[in-house]
Amino acid sequence: MVDVAGESEVIQAARRAREAAADLAVRTRGEKDRALHAIADALAADAPRILEANAEDVARAREAGTDSGIVDRLTLTADRITAIAEALRKVTTLADPVGEVVRGSTLPNGLELRQVRVPLGVVGIIYEARPNVTVDAAGLCLKSGNAVLLRGSSSARASNAALVEIMREALAGCGLPVDAIQLVPGDTHDSVKELMQARGLVDVLIPRGGAALISSVVTGSTVPVIETGVGNCHVYVDADADVDLAVELLIDSKAQRPSVCNAAETVLVHRDIAEAFLPRALAALAAAGVTVHGDEQVSGYSADVVPATEADYYKEYVSLDIAAAVVDSLDAAIAHIREYSTNHTESIITRSQAAARTFTARVDSAAVIVNASTRFTDGGEFGFGAEIGISNQKLHARGPMGLPELTSTKYIVVGDGQTKARHSSAL
Amino acid sequence: MVDVAGESEVIQAARRAREAAADLAVRTRGEKDRALHAIADALAADAPRILEANAEDVARAREAGTDSGIVDRLTLTADRITAIAEALRKVTTLADPVGEVVRGSTLPNGLELRQVRVPLGVVGIIYEARPNVTVDAAGLCLKSGNAVLLRGSSSARASNAALVEIMREALAGCGLPVDAIQLVPGDTHDSVKELMQARGLVDVLIPRGGAALISSVVTGSTVPVIETGVGNCHVYVDADADVDLAVELLIDSKAQRPSVCNAAETVLVHRDIAEAFLPRALAALAAAGVTVHGDEQVSGYSADVVPATEADYYKEYVSLDIAAAVVDSLDAAIAHIREYSTNHTESIITRSQAAARTFTARVDSAAVIVNASTRFTDGGEFGFGAEIGISNQKLHARGPMGLPELTSTKYIVVGDGQTKARHSSAL
Prior knowledge:
The structure is a homodimer.
Chain A: H1 9-24, H2 29-45, H3 47-63, H4 68-74, H5 78-92, E1 101-106, E2 112-119, E3 122-127, H6 132-143, E4 147-151, H7 157-173, E5 181-183, H8 189-196, E6 204-208, H9 211-220, E7 233-237, H10 243-255, E8 264-270, H11 271-287, E9 291-294, H12 296-299, E10 306-307, H13 310-314, E11 321-327, H14 330-340, E12 345-349, H15 353-362, E13 367-372, E14 389-391, E15 399-401, E16 407-418, H16 420-423
Parallel strand pairs in A: 3-4, 3-6, 4-5, 7-8, 7-12, 8-11, 9-10, 9-11, 12-13
Antiparallel strand pairs in A: 1-2, 2-16, 14-15
């Protein structure tokens, strides 16, 4: 047995989560869905307690002179609590990924082989201000049979504490292990560090937030990490694009909601369509309040274009800014994307079947889109019903992550006495 | 552009691999299979050159007083080279995982969504003595469209250099990028360190070898790692087991080939069957040359049993040794496995449907087996046709890894002008 004396609170919490996960892994969909409804009921019933805790966080943030956008994301209202509870109820309508048979066959020697989905185990989520993530993430982990360790930001500590307390009370009321949902103890950076070193106790860490947060987790963790979110997304307007459509899709991709990871950050324009496209596109971008950071050729079409530097093409602005460049060919567009993109989402606008096929084959991003807005890379839009984040990496999960992405698999092999010595099927 | 001046040879090799991977990713199955046949032909034709290089390695190992088992694994013969070439030809018969549509649908707004398999990109393999791994791994990576960086042990350096040179010549002859197959330059531990820090250039590292190698890669790498192999596998003999069958399966699991990761290392016996099972099992194990490290109850059945310490139950012996314990119940067996297992493979021997169901549901290992030998956890036995290793982790791949496990996916979304503003499907 491992000596547990002198262990930190974080490691102790991870051990409790591990125990809870073993219990939760074998609960039925019925039990988990009933708990999700019970949590939704409890959040609605306890809204005053949540709002009181949240008011404390908001007051502290205001006193500290926090940016008003961040204060807004931190703020809960009765309506927002209702929406959070409704989102949990929606998770009950989704299929349980646990137990799904991914593949199976009867082997030549009669062994019955099934690969079935099982929970990952203990999932750590490290996230920034929004308290709704506390409940969303807990709900998705619960449904997929995982225990969750929630490490929110200290600015939301009172809100998160109230939300987690209410969720744990509801779990207890349903006979489910309360330690399936825990806040990571401690507000300091040390607690994140300990979480990142808890290999063997924590099965995966999912950082959700800005690039700095994600990068620090990715490089500092011995626990496997799923990298999420940073999106330097491209719109490529091909020589054969429909100009009206290209302008509409560019504006939607950039300006419909510029603060999100699937918003476009760079537009690349084939030189043969530059003259037809750029004057109209620049006018439409200006009308939408977008500042264009362009190369020399783009700048030639409008005095409002700010000269782009090399750094602009690497940027995820997350604001009403866009980088722009004219390219000589489809190949040059693909080469630009390979160099500068974070490989989240890239879109081509074209009427050419050949160009669309080349672009979708050769652009290696989580989502490659033809003749539609980059803004569709989203678990909700893809029909997954819920999303724990958008993976930017190639291992385990790529693109929007729904419930199946919160699972692993195991092989179940049923025989009637097969030995390797007498019944090998291997060639 | 990234400044590449002053970069190490390892990083330069990784950059070349990245370029090669982009090319290889869009090659057809036909092109890749032709290259695999060309490599197999070249290895057969150049066997004398390989044997000469191998003789150098073997002589050096003998001079250094290397263990004879390791010298044997290092040694190539004309027959072994033929077998290596035949294994490559077999890979041509396997389906190309690249391009497989994993899921797809038409969304409510008319967007056509497909999730398709794509290569991971650049795969690093860090492995020990056997030169056959050099060719096996290169072949599987080539078939799955990945560039490979091979980091073998210095004891096999001449053999590996000859094999890689021949494979690269064959690639060149087929018009495929030669840098799709590279040896990691440099023999020192520094080159492994650089490989482990090449995040962004290398997509995944797969260590194959002993526990120390795997552990050092897992903890030292910022590149994502797929942990392979260490197997502390259990056979649990349930109260309702058929004794004859239990003895036969135990002997097969332990002694059919004790040096491999799916061999059993611990046998757990339900107390109600101990008296019927243990005397026969201990006699059969003794006859097979197996030393039993048992608890007090097991020791009561034979004077040959060595008293087990706590450490024995954590051990992967990889030898003709086995730990043994009597447990009070199925639950106690599951609890023991949860504490001590590396979660590779566990087998239950039972006639009870209820016990089998509980064991397969609650034991969380890569493979959970009912009434068959632990030795079946293997890509060949599972019908995968080839295996790059057996994953011991929960993220990305678990259990035997075939060609699909060497891929990621991307979403391809085809529309006809959908914008988020006007055509959102999200609720």
